[in-house]
Write a structure and sequence with these properties.
Length: 396
């Protein structure tokens, strides 16, 4: 079988630096050799391929756009390209890398103390330490500001109470970045201000039971985080940020990676649909020769190409320091939206075969349902854009 070459209808490749192409090709080949052959089995068994973590670390993909502390210090475009290739394998693998780098290493890098950076980042970059990010709660998803998880100052420690839900990597994590309201002495929840805390596996009163029964992201670990009088030392607060700015800064980085990643899943579905349409014969001809099928393939090509241009320009603006959050919202919502539609159309082109795990399309489709919802639902990004256009927040 020919090696996968991606889709590059608008010669975007020529816009990349040698280093960016090198990273893209490294990850592309690794996904082809190490992920594609095993991922359906892992998905079927609902198992994250843990054995791949050291290899991901060795490639320098964990916190790869961060500087120092053992991180690769690559461009944001290189990071995006890596996300694209990883998600061509599976959204679960890209989610692992996004959570580790953008949601855990980034806040320690940006808001942590020098001691915290030295303590956690080098081992997180190799994958020796795994992180998770606890923001969502059972009753507060799109509205994280309403969170009820709280931290109370108790002399030389903080005591956390509350629960987080839907936490990627939760049960396999060595540390969790937990966002909780720090209650001032004598105050109530309403007086609390959001802070980030580093909770380590084994801290008293902390548990991370895995959530089961998912039809989506089956090759990824999703967990609850439970804090019952969980006591952590005072030096585990992230000193450099308070308020929603902290978690939102992490989400912006992760959403950026998703805007690229979704294109990888879309391309996997496009290629599978193209190959299937050329080989499947009905009414005496390959189904690829029917105009309706060509229309579907042409639509996929059009949307993937537009999505690639969006992602690249977003990455260049991020590298130049001119990107603003609404631009990330547009790219995240657009690229996940078109990827999900492409996965559904690809499933249709595969006919009944499309529901089998012999083809990657139904797995990508199910995965993308989560990607559509996490890191700000599609409609929350619509509201972010609506606020930018009108100046009127319509969230509540
Ligand atoms: C597989 C998976 C992994 C995840 N990983 C993590 C993780 O690692 N860490 C973490 O903290 N969270 C994680 N999440 C949680 C995710 O971020 C939330 O699911 C997401 O923010 C949406 O919250 P919700 O599910 O509570 O939906 P809700 O907020 O209840 O939304 C339900 C529906 O209502 C709509 N809605 C909500 N508010 C409005 C409004 N104001 N106007 C119009 N429509 C509205 C939404 O768009 C959506 O359609 C994960 C989720 C999944 C599925």
């Amino acid at each position: 079988m020919a090696r996968y070459e991606g889709l590059d209808f608008y010669a975007i490749d020529k816009q990349l630096t040698d280093e960016e192409r090198m990273v893209r090709d490294l990850v592309r080949n690794w996904v082809e050799d190490r992920v594609i052959p095993i991922i359906e089995q892992h998905c079927r068994e609902g198992r994250f391929p843990m054995h791949l973590v050291p290899e991901i670390g060795e490639m320098g993909l964990l916190g790869m756009n961060l500087e120092g502390y053992g991180c690769a210090g690559m461009s944001n475009v290189a990071y995006g390209l890596a996300c694209q290739e990883l998600e061509r394998g599976d959204s679960g693998i890209r989610s692992f890398v996004s959570v580790q780098g953008s949601l855990c290493m980034h806040p320690i890098h940006a808001f942590g103390s020098e001691e915290q950076r030295r303590r956690y980042l080098p081992e997180m970059a190799t994958g020796k330490l795994i992180g998770c990010f606890g923001l969502t709660e059972p009753d507060y998803g799109s509205n994280p500001g309403g969170m009820v998880t709280k931290a109370v100052d108790d002399g030389d420690s903080y005591v956390l109470n509350g629960a987080k839900m839907w936490i990627t990597n939760g049960s396999i994590a060595d540390l969790a970045i937990v966002w909780a309201k720090l209650i001032p002495p004598g105050g109530t929840l309403a007086d609390g201000r959001i802070h980030g805390f580093i909770v380590e596996k084994g801290d008293p009163g902390f548990s991370a039971p895995e959530m089961h029964g998912k039809h989506s992201l089956k090759a990824s670990v999703t967990s609850e985080l439970v804090f019952e009088d969980c006591r952590i030392p005072k030096d585990r607060i992230l000193p450099g940020v308070s308020g929603l700015k902290g978690p939102f800064s992490c989400l912006n980085n992760a959403r950026y990676g998703i805007a690229w990643g979704a294109l990888g899943a879309a391309q996997a579905c496009y290629w599978s649909a193209r190959e299937y349409a050329l080989s499947r014969t009905q009414f005496g001809k390959p189904i690829a020769s029917f105009q309706l099928v060509q229309n579907k393939l042409a639509w996929m090509l059009r949307e993937i190409t537009k999505g690639q241009l969006l992602a690249l320009q977003l990455g260049r603006m991020k590298d130049a320091g001119t990107m603003f959050p609404e631009q990330i919202s547009l790219a995240k919502m657009n690229n996940v939206d078109i990827a999900l539609q492409i996965a559904r159309i690809a499933r249709d082109i595969h006919g009944a075969n499309g529901i089998l795990d012999e083809y990657p399309v139904m797995r990508h489709m199910a995965n993308l349902e989560s990607v559509y919802t996490y890191e700000g639902t599609h409609d929350i990004h619509n509201l972010i854009l609506g606020r930018w256009i009108t100046g009127i927040p319509a969230f509540e």
